[in-house]
Prior knowledge:
The chain is of the alpha+beta class and 430 residues long. The protein has 8 helices and 26 strands.
Amino acid sequence: MPISANNPDRISWLHVSKNSDFPIQNIPYGVFLTRDDIITIGTRIGDTAIDLGALHQLGYFDGIPLTDDIFLQDSLNDFIADGRKTWRLVRNRIADIFDSSNTTLQNNKKHKEIVLFRLDEIEMQLPVQIGDYTDFYASKEHATNVGTMFRGKDNALMPNWLHLPVGYHGRSSSIIPSKIPIHRPQGQTLPADSKKPVFGPSQMVDFELEMAFITTDANDLGESIPIEEAEDYIFGLVLFNDWSARDIQKWEYVPLGPFLGKNFASSISPWIVTLDALEPFRVDGPKQKPQPLPYLQYSGKKSFDINLEAAIQPKGAKEKVVTRSNFKHMYWNMAQQLAHHTVNGCPVNSGDLMGSGTISGPTPDSYGSMLELTWRGEKPLIMMDQTERKFIQDYDTVILRGYCESDGNHIGFGEVKTQLLPVFSPKKKK
Ligand code: CA
Protein backbone atom coordinates (compact mmCIF):
# COMPACT_ATOMS: atom_id res chain seq x y z
CA MET A 1 0.00 0.00 0.00
CA PRO A 2 1.45 3.39 -0.98
CA ILE A 3 2.17 5.94 1.74
CA SER A 4 0.22 8.80 0.17
CA ALA A 5 0.59 10.76 3.43
CA ASN A 6 4.26 11.31 2.57
CA ASN A 7 3.53 13.28 -0.63
CA PRO A 8 5.99 16.18 -0.31
CA ASP A 9 3.81 18.51 -2.43
CA ARG A 10 0.76 18.24 -0.20
CA ILE A 11 -0.31 21.41 1.64
CA SER A 12 -2.70 21.47 4.58
CA TRP A 13 -5.58 23.90 5.10
CA LEU A 14 -4.34 24.17 8.69
CA HIS A 15 -1.67 26.80 9.27
CA VAL A 16 1.85 25.37 9.37
CA SER A 17 4.73 27.77 9.96
CA LYS A 18 7.92 27.45 7.95
CA ASN A 19 10.29 24.78 9.32
CA SER A 20 7.63 23.42 11.66
CA ASP A 21 8.46 19.89 12.85
CA PHE A 22 4.85 18.97 12.15
CA PRO A 23 3.87 19.67 8.53
CA ILE A 24 1.13 17.51 7.00
CA GLN A 25 3.88 15.08 5.90
CA ASN A 26 4.56 14.13 9.53
CA ILE A 27 1.22 13.14 11.17
CA PRO A 28 2.59 11.69 14.42
CA TYR A 29 0.49 9.96 17.06
CA GLY A 30 0.11 10.99 20.69
CA VAL A 31 -2.25 10.98 23.67
CA PHE A 32 -3.54 14.15 25.28
CA LEU A 33 -5.96 15.56 27.81
CA THR A 34 -8.37 18.02 26.22
CA ARG A 35 -9.64 21.32 27.68
CA ASP A 36 -12.65 19.33 28.93
CA ASP A 37 -10.35 16.89 30.79
CA ILE A 38 -11.10 14.11 28.34
CA ILE A 39 -8.24 11.83 27.38
CA THR A 40 -7.94 10.99 23.70
CA ILE A 41 -5.58 9.81 21.02
CA GLY A 42 -4.58 12.54 18.63
CA THR A 43 -2.26 13.89 16.01
CA ARG A 44 -0.82 17.28 15.23
CA ILE A 45 -0.43 19.48 12.17
CA GLY A 46 1.50 22.71 12.70
CA ASP A 47 0.46 23.99 16.12
CA THR A 48 -3.00 22.43 15.97
CA ALA A 49 -3.77 19.24 17.89
CA ILE A 50 -6.40 16.98 16.34
CA ASP A 51 -8.70 14.74 18.37
CA LEU A 52 -8.80 11.42 16.50
CA GLY A 53 -11.45 10.02 18.84
CA ALA A 54 -13.82 12.81 17.87
CA LEU A 55 -12.94 12.54 14.17
CA HIS A 56 -13.74 8.83 14.27
CA GLN A 57 -17.08 9.41 16.04
CA LEU A 58 -17.98 11.95 13.36
CA GLY A 59 -17.39 9.31 10.68
CA TYR A 60 -14.20 10.60 9.10
CA PHE A 61 -12.57 7.15 9.21
CA ASP A 62 -15.49 5.32 7.55
CA GLY A 63 -14.31 2.39 5.47
CA ILE A 64 -11.28 1.68 7.64
CA PRO A 65 -11.77 -1.34 9.91
CA LEU A 66 -11.44 0.23 13.39
CA THR A 67 -13.29 -0.55 16.60
CA ASP A 68 -15.52 2.32 17.79
CA ASP A 69 -13.38 3.15 20.82
CA ILE A 70 -9.95 2.64 19.28
CA PHE A 71 -8.98 6.31 19.75
CA LEU A 72 -10.98 6.91 22.95
CA GLN A 73 -8.24 5.41 25.08
CA ASP A 74 -5.47 6.57 27.33
CA SER A 75 -2.78 4.77 25.34
CA LEU A 76 -1.97 3.85 21.74
CA ASN A 77 -1.32 0.18 22.56
CA ASP A 78 -4.51 -1.23 20.97
CA PHE A 79 -4.16 0.91 17.87
CA ILE A 80 -0.52 -0.12 17.54
CA ALA A 81 -1.58 -3.77 17.91
CA ASP A 82 -3.85 -3.32 14.85
CA GLY A 83 -0.71 -3.46 12.70
CA ARG A 84 1.05 -1.58 9.99
CA LYS A 85 -1.72 -1.75 7.38
CA THR A 86 -4.14 0.05 9.72
CA TRP A 87 -1.56 2.67 10.82
CA ARG A 88 -0.97 3.44 7.16
CA LEU A 89 -4.67 3.62 6.23
CA VAL A 90 -5.38 6.02 9.11
CA ARG A 91 -2.35 8.21 8.44
CA ASN A 92 -3.22 8.40 4.72
CA ARG A 93 -6.81 9.32 5.62
CA ILE A 94 -5.69 12.08 8.01
CA ALA A 95 -3.50 13.52 5.25
CA ASP A 96 -6.53 13.48 2.95
CA ILE A 97 -8.90 15.12 5.49
CA PHE A 98 -6.48 18.00 6.08
CA ASP A 99 -5.34 18.42 2.46
CA SER A 100 -6.03 21.98 1.22
CA SER A 101 -8.11 20.58 -1.65
CA ASN A 102 -10.50 18.77 0.72
CA THR A 103 -13.29 21.04 1.96
CA THR A 104 -15.36 18.54 3.99
CA LEU A 105 -14.01 19.28 7.46
CA GLN A 106 -12.44 22.56 6.35
CA ASN A 107 -15.93 24.02 5.75
CA ASN A 108 -17.64 22.41 8.74
CA LYS A 109 -17.30 24.93 11.56
CA LYS A 110 -19.15 22.77 14.08
CA HIS A 111 -16.96 19.73 13.49
CA LYS A 112 -13.81 21.84 13.60
CA GLU A 113 -14.80 23.16 17.03
CA ILE A 114 -15.06 19.60 18.30
CA VAL A 115 -11.94 18.20 16.67
CA LEU A 116 -9.28 20.92 16.75
CA PHE A 117 -7.35 22.27 19.74
CA ARG A 118 -4.67 24.85 20.31
CA LEU A 119 -1.58 23.38 21.94
CA ASP A 120 -2.17 25.44 25.09
CA GLU A 121 -5.57 23.76 25.49
CA ILE A 122 -4.14 20.26 25.78
CA GLU A 123 -1.76 18.38 28.02
CA MET A 124 0.40 15.68 26.46
CA GLN A 125 0.53 12.30 28.21
CA LEU A 126 2.69 9.20 27.82
CA PRO A 127 1.61 7.93 24.38
CA VAL A 128 1.87 4.24 25.22
CA GLN A 129 1.65 2.04 28.24
CA ILE A 130 5.17 0.71 28.07
CA GLY A 131 5.24 -2.96 29.03
CA ASP A 132 8.92 -3.65 28.64
CA TYR A 133 11.83 -1.32 28.07
CA THR A 134 15.15 -2.41 26.62
CA ASP A 135 18.12 -0.12 26.19
CA PHE A 136 20.80 -0.85 23.63
CA TYR A 137 24.35 0.41 23.52
CA ALA A 138 24.54 0.76 19.78
CA SER A 139 26.80 3.76 19.10
CA LYS A 140 30.39 2.69 18.54
CA GLU A 141 31.68 6.17 19.33
CA HIS A 142 29.80 6.24 22.64
CA ALA A 143 30.85 2.72 23.64
CA THR A 144 34.46 3.53 22.78
CA ASN A 145 34.44 6.79 24.75
CA VAL A 146 32.82 5.29 27.85
CA GLY A 147 34.95 2.15 27.66
CA THR A 148 38.08 4.27 27.45
CA MET A 149 37.09 6.19 30.57
CA PHE A 150 35.98 3.15 32.60
CA ARG A 151 38.54 0.56 31.47
CA GLY A 152 41.29 2.30 29.50
CA LYS A 153 41.86 2.67 25.77
CA ASP A 154 43.05 -0.90 25.16
CA ASN A 155 39.89 -2.45 26.61
CA ALA A 156 37.44 0.20 25.43
CA LEU A 157 35.25 -2.08 23.30
CA MET A 158 34.48 -5.42 24.93
CA PRO A 159 35.19 -8.47 22.70
CA ASN A 160 31.47 -9.00 21.98
CA TRP A 161 30.68 -5.42 20.94
CA LEU A 162 31.35 -5.70 17.19
CA HIS A 163 29.45 -8.99 17.00
CA LEU A 164 26.10 -8.20 18.63
CA PRO A 165 23.95 -5.21 19.66
CA VAL A 166 24.64 -5.09 23.41
CA GLY A 167 21.58 -4.24 25.50
CA TYR A 168 20.00 -4.59 28.91
CA HIS A 169 16.48 -4.62 30.31
CA GLY A 170 15.51 -1.36 31.98
CA ARG A 171 12.51 -0.25 34.04
CA SER A 172 9.39 0.99 32.29
CA SER A 173 7.95 2.33 35.57
CA SER A 174 10.16 5.42 35.49
CA ILE A 175 9.63 6.41 31.85
CA ILE A 176 7.94 9.82 31.84
CA PRO A 177 6.67 12.28 29.23
CA SER A 178 8.27 15.63 28.52
CA LYS A 179 7.86 18.42 31.12
CA ILE A 180 7.64 16.11 34.18
CA PRO A 181 10.48 17.19 36.52
CA ILE A 182 12.67 14.60 38.22
CA HIS A 183 14.66 14.55 41.46
CA ARG A 184 18.38 14.08 41.84
CA PRO A 185 18.84 10.42 42.77
CA GLN A 186 20.67 9.19 45.85
CA GLY A 187 22.69 6.02 46.07
CA GLN A 188 25.98 4.30 46.78
CA THR A 189 29.15 5.60 45.24
CA LEU A 190 32.82 4.83 45.76
CA PRO A 191 34.79 8.05 46.35
CA ALA A 192 38.13 8.32 44.55
CA ASP A 193 41.00 6.69 46.50
CA SER A 194 38.55 5.01 48.87
CA LYS A 195 37.83 1.33 49.38
CA LYS A 196 34.51 1.91 51.16
CA PRO A 197 31.34 3.22 49.50
CA VAL A 198 29.32 6.18 50.81
CA PHE A 199 25.62 6.99 50.50
CA GLY A 200 24.32 10.33 49.28
CA PRO A 201 23.07 12.41 46.33
CA SER A 202 24.66 11.55 42.99
CA GLN A 203 27.24 14.18 42.05
CA MET A 204 27.33 13.10 38.40
CA VAL A 205 23.79 13.30 37.02
CA ASP A 206 23.90 13.14 33.24
CA PHE A 207 21.61 13.04 30.23
CA GLU A 208 21.87 10.53 27.40
CA LEU A 209 20.92 11.72 23.91
CA GLU A 210 19.00 8.76 22.52
CA MET A 211 16.07 7.81 20.35
CA ALA A 212 13.71 4.96 21.10
CA PHE A 213 11.41 2.91 18.91
CA ILE A 214 8.03 1.53 19.88
CA THR A 215 6.95 -1.90 18.70
CA THR A 216 3.74 -3.72 17.90
CA ASP A 217 3.00 -7.34 18.85
CA ALA A 218 5.78 -9.12 17.04
CA ASN A 219 6.22 -12.75 18.05
CA ASP A 220 5.10 -15.46 20.42
CA LEU A 221 7.33 -17.06 23.00
CA GLY A 222 9.92 -19.18 21.22
CA GLU A 223 9.58 -17.46 17.83
CA SER A 224 12.16 -15.13 16.38
CA ILE A 225 11.74 -12.27 13.92
CA PRO A 226 13.89 -12.48 10.78
CA ILE A 227 15.86 -9.31 10.20
CA GLU A 228 14.16 -8.51 6.88
CA GLU A 229 10.74 -8.50 8.60
CA ALA A 230 11.83 -6.61 11.71
CA GLU A 231 10.82 -3.14 10.52
CA ASP A 232 7.21 -4.30 9.98
CA TYR A 233 6.93 -4.40 13.76
CA ILE A 234 8.26 -0.90 14.43
CA PHE A 235 5.45 1.63 14.88
CA GLY A 236 7.52 4.76 15.31
CA LEU A 237 10.18 6.68 17.18
CA VAL A 238 10.49 9.22 19.98
CA LEU A 239 13.32 11.27 21.45
CA PHE A 240 14.64 9.61 24.56
CA ASN A 241 16.65 11.11 27.42
CA ASP A 242 17.93 8.19 29.45
CA TRP A 243 18.95 9.98 32.66
CA SER A 244 22.05 8.48 34.27
CA ALA A 245 23.93 8.87 37.54
CA ARG A 246 27.50 8.15 36.51
CA ASP A 247 28.98 7.78 39.98
CA ILE A 248 26.31 5.28 41.05
CA GLN A 249 26.66 3.48 37.71
CA LYS A 250 30.43 3.17 37.99
CA TRP A 251 30.30 1.48 41.40
CA GLU A 252 27.38 -0.87 40.72
CA TYR A 253 27.71 -1.94 37.07
CA VAL A 254 30.10 -4.90 37.47
CA PRO A 255 29.17 -7.72 36.86
CA LEU A 256 25.51 -7.41 35.79
CA GLY A 257 25.36 -3.98 34.20
CA PRO A 258 23.31 -0.84 34.84
CA PHE A 259 20.85 -0.76 37.74
CA LEU A 260 20.01 2.17 40.05
CA GLY A 261 22.33 4.54 38.18
CA LYS A 262 19.90 4.28 35.27
CA ASN A 263 16.39 3.41 36.41
CA PHE A 264 15.38 6.58 38.28
CA ALA A 265 14.05 8.33 35.15
CA SER A 266 13.97 8.31 31.36
CA SER A 267 12.04 11.02 29.48
CA ILE A 268 10.38 10.69 26.07
CA SER A 269 8.99 13.19 23.59
CA PRO A 270 5.19 12.93 23.45
CA TRP A 271 4.57 12.59 19.69
CA ILE A 272 5.48 9.24 18.10
CA VAL A 273 6.77 9.89 14.58
CA THR A 274 5.91 6.82 12.50
CA LEU A 275 8.50 4.77 10.67
CA ASP A 276 6.37 5.45 7.57
CA ALA A 277 6.89 9.22 7.95
CA LEU A 278 10.66 8.63 8.17
CA GLU A 279 10.81 6.70 4.86
CA PRO A 280 12.22 9.65 2.83
CA PHE A 281 15.13 9.95 5.26
CA ARG A 282 16.66 6.48 4.96
CA VAL A 283 20.44 6.36 4.58
CA ASP A 284 23.20 3.75 4.59
CA GLY A 285 24.53 2.84 8.00
CA PRO A 286 28.16 2.64 9.11
CA LYS A 287 30.17 -0.13 7.49
CA GLN A 288 30.16 -3.15 9.80
CA LYS A 289 33.47 -4.92 10.17
CA PRO A 290 33.76 -7.79 10.95
CA GLN A 291 30.70 -8.94 9.04
CA PRO A 292 27.98 -9.84 11.55
CA LEU A 293 26.60 -13.40 11.80
CA PRO A 294 23.95 -14.23 9.14
CA TYR A 295 20.92 -13.49 11.39
CA LEU A 296 22.19 -9.89 11.74
CA GLN A 297 22.99 -9.33 8.05
CA TYR A 298 20.64 -7.01 6.21
CA SER A 299 20.11 -5.46 2.79
CA GLY A 300 19.03 -1.95 1.82
CA LYS A 301 19.11 1.25 3.79
CA LYS A 302 18.18 0.60 7.41
CA SER A 303 19.57 3.77 9.03
CA PHE A 304 17.81 7.13 9.25
CA ASP A 305 19.19 10.64 8.90
CA ILE A 306 17.80 12.35 12.01
CA ASN A 307 19.60 15.43 13.31
CA LEU A 308 19.74 15.46 17.09
CA GLU A 309 20.72 18.08 19.62
CA ALA A 310 20.79 18.53 23.37
CA ALA A 311 20.59 21.84 25.24
CA ILE A 312 20.98 22.78 28.89
CA GLN A 313 19.00 25.66 30.38
CA PRO A 314 20.12 26.76 33.85
CA LYS A 315 17.36 28.30 36.00
CA GLY A 316 16.67 31.86 34.85
CA ALA A 317 19.17 31.70 31.98
CA LYS A 318 19.02 31.08 28.24
CA GLU A 319 19.58 27.57 26.97
CA LYS A 320 22.87 26.46 25.46
CA VAL A 321 23.03 23.75 22.82
CA VAL A 322 25.84 21.51 24.08
CA THR A 323 25.91 18.86 21.36
CA ARG A 324 24.72 18.07 17.84
CA SER A 325 24.64 14.44 16.75
CA ASN A 326 22.72 12.25 14.31
CA PHE A 327 20.77 8.99 14.58
CA LYS A 328 22.59 7.71 11.47
CA HIS A 329 25.80 7.29 13.48
CA MET A 330 24.29 4.29 15.26
CA TYR A 331 26.38 1.20 14.42
CA TRP A 332 23.61 -1.38 14.99
CA ASN A 333 20.34 -0.39 13.30
CA MET A 334 16.83 -0.96 14.68
CA ALA A 335 16.18 -4.02 12.48
CA GLN A 336 19.33 -5.64 13.81
CA GLN A 337 18.34 -4.75 17.37
CA LEU A 338 14.89 -6.31 17.01
CA ALA A 339 16.21 -9.41 15.21
CA HIS A 340 18.80 -9.88 17.93
CA HIS A 341 16.30 -9.24 20.73
CA THR A 342 13.99 -12.01 19.48
CA VAL A 343 16.53 -14.51 18.14
CA ASN A 344 16.30 -16.53 21.35
CA GLY A 345 12.49 -16.50 21.29
CA CYS A 346 11.90 -13.55 23.63
CA PRO A 347 8.43 -12.11 22.88
CA VAL A 348 8.04 -8.42 22.00
CA ASN A 349 4.65 -6.80 22.60
CA SER A 350 2.65 -3.78 21.50
CA GLY A 351 3.96 -0.76 23.36
CA ASP A 352 7.42 -2.09 24.16
CA LEU A 353 10.11 0.56 23.97
CA MET A 354 13.66 0.02 22.73
CA GLY A 355 16.26 2.71 23.42
CA SER A 356 19.10 3.14 20.96
CA GLY A 357 21.71 3.88 23.58
CA THR A 358 23.50 7.22 23.65
CA ILE A 359 24.14 8.42 20.11
CA SER A 360 27.55 10.03 19.93
CA GLY A 361 29.01 11.32 16.71
CA PRO A 362 32.66 11.09 15.70
CA THR A 363 33.71 14.57 16.89
CA PRO A 364 33.93 15.88 20.48
CA ASP A 365 31.13 18.41 19.83
CA SER A 366 28.78 15.59 18.80
CA TYR A 367 29.07 13.41 21.90
CA GLY A 368 25.72 12.39 23.41
CA SER A 369 26.35 12.79 27.15
CA MET A 370 28.05 15.14 29.61
CA LEU A 371 30.31 12.25 30.62
CA GLU A 372 31.84 12.37 27.16
CA LEU A 373 31.43 16.09 26.40
CA THR A 374 33.32 17.13 29.54
CA TRP A 375 35.42 13.93 29.53
CA ARG A 376 34.31 12.90 33.04
CA GLY A 377 34.33 16.50 34.25
CA GLU A 378 37.87 17.36 33.11
CA LYS A 379 36.66 19.86 30.49
CA PRO A 380 33.63 21.74 31.86
CA LEU A 381 31.19 23.40 29.46
CA ILE A 382 30.33 27.09 29.79
CA MET A 383 26.64 27.97 29.92
CA MET A 384 25.02 31.16 28.54
CA ASP A 385 25.12 32.70 32.05
CA GLN A 386 28.88 31.94 32.18
CA THR A 387 28.47 29.24 34.83
CA GLU A 388 30.35 25.96 34.35
CA ARG A 389 28.83 22.52 33.97
CA LYS A 390 30.62 19.23 34.47
CA PHE A 391 27.32 17.42 34.94
CA ILE A 392 23.69 18.53 35.36
CA GLN A 393 22.99 20.84 38.31
CA ASP A 394 19.82 21.21 40.36
CA TYR A 395 17.13 23.24 38.55
CA ASP A 396 18.83 22.79 35.15
CA THR A 397 16.47 21.83 32.34
CA VAL A 398 17.72 19.44 29.66
CA ILE A 399 16.08 19.68 26.24
CA LEU A 400 16.52 17.17 23.40
CA ARG A 401 15.38 17.94 19.85
CA GLY A 402 15.41 15.99 16.62
CA TYR A 403 14.46 16.63 12.99
CA CYS A 404 14.96 15.30 9.46
CA GLU A 405 15.67 17.41 6.42
CA SER A 406 16.18 16.50 2.77
CA ASP A 407 15.25 18.13 -0.56
CA GLY A 408 13.38 20.90 1.23
CA ASN A 409 11.29 18.43 3.28
CA HIS A 410 11.41 18.89 7.03
CA ILE A 411 9.75 16.81 9.71
CA GLY A 412 10.69 16.58 13.36
CA PHE A 413 10.02 15.22 16.79
CA GLY A 414 9.51 18.46 18.69
CA GLU A 415 11.32 18.24 21.98
CA VAL A 416 11.62 16.43 25.27
CA LYS A 417 12.27 18.77 28.16
CA THR A 418 12.99 17.77 31.76
CA GLN A 419 14.05 19.77 34.80
CA LEU A 420 16.28 18.24 37.46
CA LEU A 421 15.11 19.13 40.98
CA PRO A 422 17.14 18.64 44.18
CA VAL A 423 17.01 15.37 46.11
CA PHE A 424 13.46 14.51 47.10
CA SER A 425 12.68 15.46 50.69
CA PRO A 426 9.66 13.78 52.25
CA LYS A 427 7.06 16.03 53.79
CA LYS A 428 7.43 16.14 57.58
CA LYS A 429 4.56 14.58 59.50
CA LYS A 430 2.65 17.08 61.58
CA1 CA B 1 21.05 4.54 27.88
